[in-house]
Amino acid sequence: MTQTNWELIHDAASGSSTAKRSLDAVMKRAWPAVYAYIRASGRRSEEATELTQAFLCDVFLARRLLDKADESRGRFRTLLLGAVRNHLADVHRRATAAIRKPKEGLIALDAHESPLGTASAASSSPERAFNTRYVAELIRSASDRLHRELEAEGMPETWEIFRVRVLHAAFQGEAPPYEAIAARLGLTKGACAVRLLIAKRRFATILMEELRATITDPADLSNEVTDLLSLLNAE
Amino acid sequence: MTDSASHPSDDEASPHARRSLGDTLRWSFEFDQSSTLAGATFLTREIIPSARDPFDALIESGPTLHQLEELKNAYKLLRTSGSSAPERSLAARLYAATIATALVRHGAVISSQASATLARAFEELAADASMPERLRDIGALAADALRRAG
User: Minimal CA–CA distance to A194: which of A151, A231, A158?
Assistant: First the structure.
């Protein structure tokens, strides 16, 4: 059973014996999307790595965002996105202030000159990178779990059919013909199709479970899927 | 190929990658919410991509004998591996309907089951009010054909 992000967040902030493990789990889930946002905001990879680490340390640890996280705020994705957007704007503001600070005192920052814009009006490109990576990580996590479960249950051929027909076809290009997979595995096409159905259903269950773990209200799942699809489709 | 090679790559910003992620998310959501007919429809379309659903495949698409054998194998497995009792029950009915279609359309018996068992399955198909009328007719014709063959 997937622990919800909120369960992990509360445990991470609780100081319990499992707090460190929960914190690691939250950071692991958060890292790729945060890094993608920072990278898409124009930072080089080394700088983006440092800023991601700084964000996770400064915001998740030093400012105890986990402790303050409020379930009523709904979606972990929007909490994380808002936090990294504000953090990056703060970093930029501090850096710009240090450069511009004249002898006679601090001048106001002009939002128009900021490559990041304001905290509430960040560029759409970093947001798209964040959301894309966020979905990619959910899918990666779900497929890893499906692989582990099918292997543990002695169903490696079911995993192989899913890997080739679904993951490879979707993310790496054309899959080999169905007949070729069936022949290689010594199965009929119908038997392959049934195994693929089983795997797709399991994957769908796991992926939706992972997604439900990031929202407070289970009834909000449909809205979250709709929003993510809209964000992925946005040009 | 390693597993990582089949995962979404780090280049998710490309339109193709984003479309693939969206497609995966969309079908997963639909599968999670799917109806009794969805499993059989999925299997049918894996074997006859142009078919809308199992009924369309058996009644309208003019399936080849080879396609009917593949459908039979798939529905047979779904009888035991379906995710719910209604789905397994539907698969059993489609299994019989596929054998009946092969008999009526191609004059071929694609099952090793005893004639009496097949005849009973065809008669149950013909009497099942939840099935499309034309499929029930195929069940009745197949039962007749078996009787005539003695």
Answer: A158
- Residue A182 touches partner B, C-beta closer than 8 Å: no
- Predicted ipTM beyond 0.85: no
Q: Three-state SS for B123?
A: helix
Separation in Å, CA of A135 to nearest CA in chain B: 7
Give the whole-angstrom CA distance, residue B135 versus residue A198: 27
- Inter-CA distances, A234 with A22, A33, A137, B142, Å: 33, 17, 19, 53
A114-133 residues touching B, CB cutoff 8 A: 128-129, 132-133
Q: What digits encode the pLDDT tens for the residues B17-76? A: 888 889 899 888 888 777 788 899 999 999 999 999 999 999 988 899 999 999 999 999
Q: C-alpha distances in angstroms, A76 versus A16, A25, A81?
A: 22, 14, 8
The answer to whether the beta carbons of residues A8 and A21 sit under 8 Å apart is: no
Q: Do B17 and A200 touch (CB under 8 A)?
A: no
CA distance B2 to A163: 10
Taking a C-beta distance cutoff of 8 angstroms, is the pair B69, B81 a contact? Answer: no
For the stretch A92-147, pLDDT in tens is: 888 787 665 555 444 333 333 333 333 333 345 899 899 999 999 999 999 999 99
Q: How far is A73 from chain B (nearest CA, A)?
A: 23
Q: Could you give the residue ranges of the DSSP H alpha helices within A41-75?
A: 45-55, 65-68
Inter-residue contact B110 to B59 (CB < 8 Å): no
Would you list which residues of chain B are within 8 Å, Cβ to Cβ, of chain A?
1, 3, 5-9, 12-13, 17-32, 39, 42-43, 46-47, 69-78, 81, 83
What are the domain boundaries of chain B? 35-149
Encoding tokens for residue A32? 């790729």
The values of phi and psi at residue A75, to 5°, are: -105, 130
Q: Under a CB-based contact definition with an 8 Å cutoff, are residues B32 and A225 in contact?
A: no
